[in-house]
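Researcher: Can you fold this with KG4 in place?
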Amino acid sequence: MRVLGIESSCDETGIAVYDSAKGLIAHQVHSQTDVHAPFGGVVPELASRDHVRKMVPLVEKTLAEAGLTQHEIDGIAYTKGPGLVGALLTGAMFAKTLGFVLNVPTIGVHHLEGHLLAPFLEPTPPAFPFLALLVSGGHTELVKVAGLGQYELIGDTLDDAVGEAFDKTAKLLGLGYPGGAALAALAEKGQKGRFRFPRPMTDRPGLTLSFSGLKTFALNTIEGNPKDEQTRADIAYAFEEAVVATLTIKCRRALKETGMKSLVIAGGVGANSALRAALHDLCQSQGVSLFFPRLEFCTDNGAMIAYVGCERLMAGEREDLTVDVRARWPLHELSPP
Ligand code: KG4
Ligand code: ZN
């Protein structure tokens, strides 16, 4: 079965074709960073309008890359939620309309299920069950994954997502939006030991996370120190060090509690090399296998949506023509097909 995947939950338009026999055969992502950067964050209405502009040309480009015509598509998967409602509606309307015209089934996919199962796009995917650390701009979750549609949330953030904390701290350091990768690059020039940031929620048991305090700590540190380049780099280093240490401590606990032997890192912050290195060391010391999707599948993309949609459509799941998106959609509401 060949499935066209459409991701439009936030500020990336992602289109892909996944083939159940051949795997991923084409994918394209258009990032709206330039549209939102002048505003210091995502402007929902501008996101919707840009998805509308880019969707058709990007689908045509992806089909051309795959060497397929639209009539060779057997199903269409789109991101049904969670995300910005207007942005989600552009993908859902497009998918339902094209599905109706081509007379093929459509399926709405949970964005986070896409992230959690993105490692299945790789040549050596993990086996179920596994523990997943989902770290993106909107979510920071520890999830026990037993199988397709079987997710147990075992750790969550009380406030900011870790990507959000990176972005807000980057903004305070004058690094623009989204600043996670820029902050990580600045941190590489920083010196260890000059500043020490707290490791939130690690002094008490459990898997709850909280990152809004780090941003406040960063603000106070920036205001109370010189503004030279080395100081900014040292602050970036200390911030990243604290985030990585906190996530590593929580992952160690979660592995111990669940007895899982595989760890998956998903979401945009999974691109952070300090985090990757720390979790690599942790897994090695615990005899746990570590899985990362390649960088382009850590951040938002259509391939993960096409993959999940293909699995669910092949299992016989179907939707009618109702256009129904979910701005909020807890992961535990999902079920196996
Ligand atoms: O998964 P994603 O592409 O979008 C959401 O669904 O949120 O994640 C985007 C987030 C942003 O907050 C961005 O700053 C962060 O991932 N990010 C990074 C890095 N690359 C992207 N954070 C830290 N280090 C990086 N190298
Ligand atoms: Zn995402």
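Model: Folded with KG4 in place. The two ends are 16 Å apart (CA to CA).
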